[in-house]
Amino acid sequence: MANRIGVYVCHCGTNIAGKVNPEAVAGFAATLRNVTVARDYKFMCSDPGQDMIINDIRNMGLNRVVVASCSPRLHEKTFRNACLRGGLNPYLFHMTCIREHCSWVTEDPDEATTKAMHLVAGAVDRVNHHEELFSRQEHVHPDILVVGGGIAGIQAALDCASSGLKVHLVERAPSIGGHMAQFDKTFPTLDCAACISTPKMVAVAQDPNINLMTWSEVTEVNGFVGNYTATVRMKPRYVDMNKCTGCGLCLEKCPKKVESEFEEGMGKRRAIFRNSPQSVPNTPVVDADNCIFFQKGRCKACEKNCPSGAIDFNQEPVEIQLDVGSIILATGYDVFDPTPLKQYGFGRLDNVYTALQFERLNNAVGPTGGKIVLKDGTPPQSAAIVHCVGSRDVNYHEYCSRVCCMYALKYDHLLKDKVGHHIDVTNFYIDMRCFGKGYEEFFHRVQKEGVNFVRGRPAEVVQGGVGTPEEGKLVVVAEDTLLGEPVRVAVDMVILCSAMQARADAEEVARVFGVSVGQDGFFLEEHPKLGPVSTATDGIFIGGSCQGPKDIPDAVSHASGAAAKAIALAAKGEVDISPTTSWINPDICIGCKACIGLCAYSAIEFDERRGVSVVNEAMCKGCGSCAGHCPSGAAQIRHFNERQIFAEIEGLLEFDPFLPPGPVAEPSGDSSGKASGRPQAEEHKETANVTA
Predict the structure, then answer these.
(1) Which of 38, 480, 653, 682 could form a disulfide with 30 if both were Cys (CB 3.0 to 4.6 A apart)?
(2) What's this model's pTM, rounded to 2 decimal places?
(3) Residues 154 and 179: beta-carbon distance below 8 Å
């Protein structure tokens, strides 16, 4: 049966019609071979626009549909569903983009219209070779894996568990809480961070639906949406969690002290340690790299003094496999190390602190017991806070970290509150970005407390000269861009508001889970507006600051969104698996195995008996790596095979939109009647201009 194609050109308001002439494109499409009807409409994605497609399928017997509109990432599913409702297989539909590819990037309207015609011709040529494909349904395992135990991971785990689902929460650190566990206060309400986070941490540990695994990492993920298998490596704590009572006697008796990572290098911890008294779980961990027993074979002071006999130096790493239906990544962020910015003197000049170091100074269980003091133990009489260290900087991170302005204002208030109102505090900022609820009001509050604000990024921080009024001080050299004058501010303490940046191992984690990272290093969402918690890999969601810089309210909200997606997937109980997977023609495959090493999803195996590679369609994501590399052309992607791709290319090139339509000879040797994008006369054509 001959193909009967319907072509629909969208105005998209003025997004497309502002440059492209949709009526001319529809009129041109009506002249293409096998096109039965061509229409243009203001909003094809609207209900009337979809009804137009459905009615034409039913009334005109269309067996192919082309829509020329916005990006397929936005509305391809919309139009596929419309075709399905009209009784047409959704894979006999093709969508071509004339908004992002034409109207938004082409200045001249005539050129934009011509380009749109080319794209429509290519789409028509391609859709002639589409074949019916059918998705399959798979059962969804109800369990959920949450990776990362910061505030976002905690929120996601609690939300999922509250729906009655089993949750596995994996955290690589000895305890959960993330960066929030290091904070003292939270802006703009100045709530105690521990008072907010500790109850949630305890709730995680006590929830019967949550399997908490700390000091563990996910090393491998296999499977597909609804049916993932994750391999988790549990590192030995050398402490039996079932026997340990958390008394802390082992921490007191351990003779070895090292710098504490949790205290940002400003305090010491023992070789057997826990981050803080509020740690969840409260069971200590033995640091084998610094433990005297592991290094020299003697000591065992912790074992000798443990009243419950919980120390076990014979523990080994354990790998377990978890079957889950969906995965939520909430791996958080790293703090930018300002050491490379030599001009600010971090690590070289005393009393130059990072933001997290200042947080620990303020914390009641920090190295100074919550007192803001200099390295010599005296309180500062003046302080400078430098904004955007590593942020909004073409040499490091061009993006805004979003939280720096607000936590700088929090530090302003804490300095005034704890040291005294006499302290002189100066902020060096580029722009004040106080965007959230109550943030601008907090800014005004800090201004009224007498804090100084200098608009300008400091050039350097230097030691005050000997024999000058600046002796013994740190001098911040900058330009006040509002006054247009250079300034020198002598202070006792400098606080650097370091950028939030992606985890150092974000790319490796992304490889394990099969997700993408953006140019900024953070995990890439499916769509910045319509899919902010989804990823390109179905069933894997992202929550919190692993997707980009966020404050606590936004991170928690984002994590709850990811949890809702995972719950919805589990509640449905089954999922449709896309048929657009790879397949390997056994008659052509030469058995070189090149595709096996290329596959990022381990979806290709080698059949030794037949000597050919075979695709596991359940695991294949249809990325096309194998098809692009296969030297024999045996590997193809369904719905993106060579015949379809080359037909689209030929359609793009083989017509002149300014020539009158005329007959075109059928391609020789092709009984399928391969379509050409070149216009030709047809016995029955219909074109319609429909306005809203």
Answers:
(1) 38
(2) 0.85
(3) no
